[in-house]
C-alpha cells in the first residue's frame, strides 16, 4: 500500500529542504518506496481533521493503511524497520544505528533548534544579542564531540544508516549559520549525504512543491 505523508503547501524555507518532511521523503527514497504527499496550509494543520492525526498540528505525518503516525524520527524508524537498506541486519550494529537516530534527535538537534527559535522569536528582546553566542557555543561543543567521533570515517558506524540520514538532516539546519564550516569533516559528511541519489530525488520532490506554489 502506498503511504501518504504530509508536508507544507508553502514551506517557509522556500524549497531549501529544511522542513522535516525532507527526512521522511529521503528515507522513502532510500528504500525505494513510492509515496503520495498531501500538502497542508498552516491553517489546515490546526484544524480537527489534521489534529486527529497529529495532536500538535504539525507536519510530517505518515499514513499507510490503518497505520497513522507522526514524529519524523518515528516515521523514519518505521520505514527503516519495514524495508531493507536503512538498518543493518546484525543486532548489535542495529542497536548502534538506533543510538545514532536518538543522538541526532535528542542530543544534536535540540541546541540547533534552540538557536533557530531564538533567532525567530526573541530577536527583539534586549538580551537577544547576549544570548546568541551562548547558544552557538553550545552547538559548537556538540559539533566538536560529533566531529571527533566521526573522525575521517564516511558514516557514523560503518555503512550508511537511518542514523546518518537523520544526523545529516539535523546538521543541514545549520545552513547559512557559518557554524558547520569550522568542522571540515562534518561538512564533508553532510556533502556525502546530499550526494546520495535518494537525497537528491527527495530534495527535488520538496522543491517542486515550492516551485508550484509560486505559480
Ligand atoms: N518533533 C517533530 C518531528 O520531528 O516531526 C517536529 C515537527 C515540526 O516541528 N514540524 C514543523 C511544523 O509543522 C515543520 S518542520 N511547524 C508548524 C507548526 O508547528 O505550527 C520545522 C521547520 C520549519 C521551517 C523551517 N524553515 O523554514 O527553514 C525549518 C524547519
Task: Describe the protein.
This protein has nine helices and four strands. The mean pLDDT is 97. The protein has two domains: 4-85 and 198-213, Glutaredoxin, CATH 3.40.30; 91-196, Up-down Bundle (Glutathione S-transferase Yfyf (Class Pi), Chain A, domain 2). Helix 1 (21-31) crosses helix 9 (197-213) and helix 5 (91-121) runs antiparallel to helix 6 (128-150). The protein has helices at residues 21-31, 42-45, 48-51, 72-82, 91-121, 128-150, 162-172, 184-194, 197-213; strands at 4-8, 36-40, 61-64, 67-70. The protein has a four-stranded mixed β-sheet with strand order 2-1-3-4. Strand 3 and strand 4 (67-70) form a beta hairpin. It is α+β, with helices and mostly antiparallel strands. The radius of gyration is 17 Å and the shape is globular. S-(P-nitrobenzyl)glutathione is lined by residues 12-13, 18-20, 45, 57-60, 71-73.
